[in-house]
Amino acid sequence: MTEATENKTSLRARLPAPFRRIDPAVLIAFGCILLLLFLGSLYSSNFLSLEYLLQQLKVASFLGVIAAGMMLVILLGQIDLSVPWVMTMGAMMACAVAGFGTGGMILAIPFGIFCGMVFGLLNGFGVAYMRIPSMIVTLATNVVAQGLMVLYTGGFSPQDSAPEAMRWLATGFIIPGVPNAILVWAAISAAMVFLLTRTTFGRSVYGIGNSERAAYLSGIDTRRIVMIAFAVSGALSAFGGVLLAGYASKAAQAMGDAYLLPSIAAVVLGGTSILGGRGSYLGTVAGVILITLLQSILSVMQMPEAGRQIVYGIVIIVMLLLYGRGPASP
Amino acid sequence: MSEWRYWLNEQRGTLMGLAIFLLMFSVYIANHPAGLTVNVVETAANKGVLLAFIAMAQALVVITAGIDLSVGMIFVLTNCIASWIVVGTPMQTALGVAGVLLAGAACGAINGLLVIYGRLQPIVVTIATGAIYFGVALLLRPFPGGSVNEDLADALTGRLFGTIPTSLVALLVVVLLVWLPFRGSEIGRAAYAAGSSETAAFMSGVPIRRARFAAYTLAGLLAGIGGLFLTFFTYTGEAAFASGSGYTLWSIAAVVLGGVSLYGGRGSAVGAIFGAFAARTTGDMLFVFDVDPLWQPLLQGMVLLVAVSIGAIGLLRVRSRLDWFQ
């Protein structure tokens, strides 16, 4: 056991300085991305074309925005199960407000995100101040959000279509050839890296994830930090929904269902510990790209849904067995 | 006298679950146009037992401080398997039932092996195995269909002696044959110990690994029984993703309503059953109050939110603020 650790450290010490600090999990995840691209290119050379890669990054950006919020919550050692309907709510509310003339058009995106933040605050209040396990609070708020949206839409797909601004944000181009969604994801990523590594808030998140008691005793207002983290997660989920609605040009019932488990999987595959306190944002980016590529390659290979689910599950387990294992004995 | 108090303390969660259920059910019955008739009880029982089995499965794992997010998918998978093999002569049907239960237990055992011997976190592992189980279910039933031995199905979903819903009797039998022996056994006590404090249990030489493995396997078995009953109710097999994930989420809610601590080591599968019935009654409540069905999810969510907030009252008794942080 110790020998292996020493071996690892000496190996790392020999690497050039910029690589030394990178988590091995992140390296494995990026290695797997290259492997997937290589396997894909054996099947068809289209997989290495620039258009395909940009298209994948665009699809990945929706998951990426959501996973950024999820990561913040997982770093605290909590989990956010309210993603599906907070996301749908963000999309539906943004589309609905856009129906009210010019003022609505301007307020559409901020209002969608605001709704997500309100639910995030509710989650955060339950977890931080009422000390209810996050799994059950976020589960309940998810059902409440679903209830509100079912009531609002009457159970049908809403008729409002996404306003121009939302479509532009998801599918337009500021830089020719690079969809705006990728730029949005890049901006949020840059903000996340800054937040996690350069601010008191970010360092407190890691501290709370390791030991909330110790963080509290060090004078951190842990409850406030936890509540803010959940609010950010809710806002980012809703923003992901807004982007997705812009991409699909309207909001739909259950549009968020397919994003909960992949967002958790992306964060964990990127080397973030589900117990909190450990993980780098770069890993989450790798996890998001990995999952998007995997889904895309399987669908291009025309594998039926059943096979896709099975391969998807097996890949997650194999990757976790590679680097996500806990200590040997309790 | 003091022993009685220990017992009460241990059963507090379960009694709480029972109280929530009784309260909801009596409000439901009091406002039901038909009142407390055999038909009403039978319908309520048949709706509730499915979630009750899944909630029991979840409770077993949660007691060991784990979580199983694949129970709903095992439920769907065993439903699909049952729609293939629980048919034909009584002998074939019996073999089919055994096969379905075995498949459920095998799914649970795979979860257990990965969590305990693979040393992986249960949340993530069961998300992944859930995807695999759903994929297999979809392979078996790309389209809804299949059939089941209808004699057996009708026998198990009807009434015994014209008054008692058979599904409730089946639930009781499962509690007597699976839960009570488990709870009383060395393995079962070890499961509680492992959930309560893994380190202390390890130091005391408690067989933690075997206990947790048994909990995951039995959870798979119980989810399999649930899948079998789903087939008896619907006569078909269907690989429905929404149904699987819905049952998983509601099983967690039921477990919490039934007084099982998500931190492990507290509560019982019987409490989870009451939690499941309480959760189901919430859904039915709107019928009797003649509320627009569109309000149903919202009211269910509100009830859930209020119910879990009740647990926060315990905070008022905390003497040291450090106790806020587990």
From TrEMBL, chain A:
Subcellular location: Cell membrane
Chief location category: membrane
Membrane-spanning intervals of the chain: 25-45, 57-76, 82-100, 107-129, 135-156, 168-196, 225-246, 258-275, 281-298, 310-328
A Gene Ontology term for the protein's cellular component: plasma membrane
Keywords: Cell inner membrane, Cell membrane, Membrane, Transmembrane, Transmembrane helix, Transport
UniProt GO molecular function: transmembrane transporter activity
Pfam families named in the record: BPD_transp_2
InterPro entries documented for this protein: ABC_transp_permease (IPR001851)
Function description: Part of the ABC transporter complex LsrABCD involved in autoinducer 2 (AI-2) import. Probably responsible for the translocation of the substrate across the membrane.
Subunit relationships: The complex is composed of two ATP-binding proteins (LsrA), two transmembrane proteins (LsrC and LsrD) and a solute-binding protein (LsrB).
PANTHER family found in the cross-reference section: ABC TRANSPORTER PERMEASE PROTEIN YPHD-RELATED-RELATED, AUTOINDUCER 2 IMPORT SYSTEM PERMEASE PROTEIN LSRD
Protein name per Swiss-Prot or TrEMBL: Autoinducer 2 import system permease protein LsrD
Source organism of the structure: Mycoplana dimorpha
From TrEMBL, chain B:
Protein name: Monosaccharide ABC transporter membrane protein (CUT2 family)
InterPro entries, A to Z: ABC_transp_permease (IPR001851)
TM region positions: 12-29, 49-67, 74-91, 97-116, 123-140, 160-180, 213-235, 247-263, 270-289, 295-316
Pfam families: BPD_transp_2
Primary localisation category: membrane
Species this chain originates from: Mycoplana dimorpha
UniProt entry tagged with the keyword Zinc: no
Membrane topology annotation: Multi-pass membrane protein
Assigned GO CC terms: plasma membrane
Annotated localization: Cell membrane
Record-level Gene Ontology MF annotations: transmembrane transporter activity
Keywords, in A-Z order: Cell membrane, Membrane, Transmembrane, Transmembrane helix
